[in-house]
Design a protein that fits this description.
There is one protein chain. The chain contains seven helices and no strands. With 179 residues, it is mainly alpha-helical. The protein has one domain. Helix 2 packs across helix 3, helix 2 crosses helix 4 and helix 3 packs antiparallel against helix 4. The protein is elongated, with a radius of gyration of 23 Å.
């Protein structure tokens, strides 16, 4: 006896995947010039890696300063989502610590802050560690953001120009077919 397979239902995409696909379609179809869209993508990615909290606000401010598309810059900050923090934050700190002299390592921070001490001593140790730590973290985030942002801007520029070129070719073919 043979079993006739029923018509398979199309598999629905997950929420994040569908959201990202729609954002890519939005960027590709946006009427702004491709270089402006690429700058918006770059600014959004840099803002996502530069500060740990408030990515969209930083992206909107930087896009406003750079006269870019604020909506696209805000949407692109989704690239740095919380599940990626355990990977990116230590990498940001390691890159920044290699460039900033006098930055304590993770082991030093742990040994200074986690042993028993009075609250005043804890705050003093935290302030001694804080500025070099924040500087290293921010510098590492800036470097990672610029590298990944450059790749993202290049990909966005190529995607937009390719989409527009193919759309123009299809429009011309349609006009020829009508004649």
């Amino acid at each position: 006896m043979s079993v006739i397979p029923s018509a398979a239902k199309p598999v629905r995409e997950s929420g994040i995947r569908r959201f990202l696909r729609y954002r890519l379609i939005y960027i590709r179809r946006h009427p702004a010039p491709p270089d402006k869209l690429a700058r918006s993508v770059f600014i959004g990615i840099v803002a996502a890696f530069l500060v740990p909290i408030g990515h969209p606000i930083m992206a909107i401010f930087l896009a406003w300063c750079g006269r870019c598309n604020k909506t696209i810059a805000c949407f692109v900050t989704v690239i740095h989502i919380p599940p990626m923090y355990p990977v990116t934050w230590p990498l940001q700190f390691a890159i920044g610590a290699a460039l900033v002299p006098g930055t304590p390592q993770w082991i030093d921070i742990e040994s200074k802050l986690l042993h028993r001490q009075s609250p005043l001593q804890f705050l003093q140790q935290l302030s001694d560690i804080g500025l070099p730590f924040i500087t290293a973290f921010t510098l590492g985030g800036l470097i990672i953001g610029v590298v990944i942002g450059s790749l993202g801007a290049l990909a966005a520029y190529r995607s937009v120009t390719s989409y527009r070129h193919h759309r123009e070719l299809k429009r011309q073919e349609k006009l020829r077919a009508q004649l």
